[in-house]
Amino acid sequence: MYKVLVANRDEYDTKGIEWLLKSSMNGWQIESAQDETELIRKLESLQPDLLIFELDLINEERFISFIKTIQIIGPDLIALTMEATFSQAKRAIDMGVSDLILKPISADILLKSARKIHRRYQMNNRIAERMPSQKAEKVFNYQELFLEGPHPAEPCVSIGIKTENPLELPKLYKFLESYPFQKTVHSFILSDMVLIVAEKTNAAWKEESVRFMRDWQETSAEQVAISICTGQQDHNTVRGHYLANRKLMELTFYRGFNQIIEENSSPEWQSIDPFLSPEEQSRWIDFLNQSDLEGIKSWFHEEFLVLAEPYPEPGLIRIRLTSILAQIRRHMKTFRLAGGEMEKEYLRLFQTILYSPLIYRVISEMISFISYIFETIRSDKKLKLELTDRVLFFIETNYWDSAVTLERAADYADRNPNYISSLLAKKYGKSFRELLNETRIRQSAKLLIESEMSIKEIASVCGFRNQQYFNKVFSKIKGMPPNQFRKGMFKTSV
C-alpha cells in the first residue's frame, strides 16, 4: 500500500488535501500531522512513501533532525509554501523536494505531482521485482548509501550516471541490468542518478565508461553524464562514494552532458553574494522599463554563460536568478500582468530556475519569458500607464536612490516638473516629496520588521542621506521613531 503523510498547520488545508487524495487515488493510506512534533513522530511510525508538507512547519532548530529523518526513511517530498521567495527556494533545494507548490493549492497541480511521483515509485518496484534472485545477495545495499557505515571489506570504485531528464533513469537502469561490464557491478537507481559500485580492481574504468556512453547513445537520444570515483580521495565508505559522485555531477549545471567527469575534477565552489546589488537592481529596472531585450541578453551572457572554474555554488546561482525574477515580477505587477496565462508561465519559470539541470537552459527560458512580457505590453494598449501611474512607478523603482528629484521624475514621464507637481497635488493632495518619503518609509518599515540590518543601514538603502533626517521623517509618518517601531513589532510577534 502506498503511504502518504500530509503535514500542514492549517486544518482546513490538511483536510482538503486528504479528501482530494482519497477521492482521486484509490488504495492509498493517508495520514496527517498539524505540528512539527507530530510530523516527526508520524514519519517514524508510518514511514511514508510520500510526504506533502508545509515548508514553514519545520523551524530552524529542528531542521537538521528533520533532514536526517527523511534521509533514513527516504520518502519523496512535495513542499507547500505561501511565497515564491529565494529563501524558500533555497530551503526546498536543501531538502531535496521533488516539487515546490505555491499556496493557495491548485488541485490539478498537486494531483499531477503526486501521480508523477507515484508512477516513478511503481516503476522502481517493478524493476526491483524483475531482478534475478542471485542479485539479492549483494556486497553493497541501499542502506549503505544513506547511513555512514564502516569501510567495505575491499576498496571500491563508483560510477555515477545521470540523465538530463530524470524520468529517463528507469530506462537507463534497465539498460544497465544487461550491460556487459568487464567486472561485476552493483547498480542503484536514485532520484537523480544511477550509481554503480564495484570492488576496486585494475580495470580501466574510464575506458569502460567511454564504451558505455557510446553504446547508450546508439539506443537512446537522451544525454548522459558520467562521474568516476576510484577512492583516491577521502571517501572510502559507500556513502562517501555516493556523496562524491553527487558533488561531481553538480558540474553538469555548467558543463552540460555527454562528458565524463573524473575524481580529480571535484569542484571547489566559489562563494558569491546571491543578491542583486543596488546598482544591479537599478540596471535591471532600466532594462525592463526600456524593454531592452538585447541589453538583458548581453547581461545574462556576461554573468552566467562565460563562467570559468572555480564556479559559483549552483544553489547560490539559483538564488541569484530568483532575485532577478523578483524584479521581473514587480514589472509584471506594474502593468497588471500578474494573473491568467502570464501567471502560469511565471510559475513554470520559477520551477525551471529551481530544478533545471543546465544553466544555459534556465537563461534561455528567462529570456523567452521576458520577451513574452515585452511583446504583451507593446501589443496591448490597455497596459499603457496613465501619467500619474508612471510617476508612481518611477518612485517605486527609484526610491532607494538618494539623488531622486521631481525633475528626474518629470524627465521620465516626459512632462514639465510644475505640471507633474500640480497633477499629483490634484489627484493625491500630496507633493512629489511626500509621496517619495511615504514610499521610502513603507520600505524601511518592512526592513525593520523582516531584517536584522541596523537603522543606519536601512536609512541608507531606502534613500535617506543621513539617519537623523530618516528618524525625523519616520516619526512624522509612523508616529514613533524607527527603534521604537522595531521594538513594538518584535513584542507583537512574540
Write the layout of secondary structure elements.
Elements: E1 3-7, H1 11-24, E2 29-33, H2 36-46, E3 50-54, H3 63-73, E4 76-81, H4 86-95, E5 99-102, H5 107-130, H6 142-146, E6 156-163, H7 169-177, E7 186-189, E8 194-199, H8 205-219, E9 224-229, H9 238-249, H10 252-255, E10 259-262, H11 278-289, H12 293-305, H13 314-334, H14 340-355, H15 359-379, H16 387-398, H17 406-413, H18 417-428, H19 432-450, H20 455-461, H21 467-478, H22 482-493
Parallel strand pairs: 1-2, 1-3, 3-4, 4-5, 9-10
Antiparallel strand pairs: 6-8, 6-9, 7-8
Helix pairs in contact: 4-13, 11-13, 12-15, 13-14, 14-15, 16-17
Account of the 3D structure:
It is a single chain. The protein has 494 residues and is an alpha/beta fold. The protein has four domains: 3-127, Rossmann fold, CATH 3.40.50.2300; 138-265, Reverse transcriptase/Diguanylate cyclase domain (Alpha-Beta Plaits, 2-Layer Sandwich), CATH 3.30.70; 278-383; 387-493, Homeodomain-like (Arc Repressor Mutant, subunit A), CATH 1.10.10. It contains 22 helices and ten strands. The protein has helices spanning 11-24, 36-46, 63-73, 86-95, 107-130, 142-146, 169-177, 205-219, 238-249, 252-255, 278-289, 293-305, 314-334, 340-355, 359-379, 387-398, 406-413, 417-428, 432-450, 455-461, 467-478, 482-493; strands spanning 3-7, 29-33, 50-54, 76-81, 99-102, 156-163, 186-189, 194-199, 224-229, 259-262. The protein has a five-stranded parallel sheet with strand order 2-1-3-4-5, sandwiched between helices. Strand 1 (3-7), helix 1 (11-24) and strand 2 (29-33) form a beta-alpha-beta unit. It starts with a strand and ends with a helix. This is AraC family transcriptional regulator. Residues 3-118 form the Response regulatory domain. Keywords: DNA-binding, Transcription, Transcription regulation. Residues 389-488 form the HTH araC/xylS-type domain.
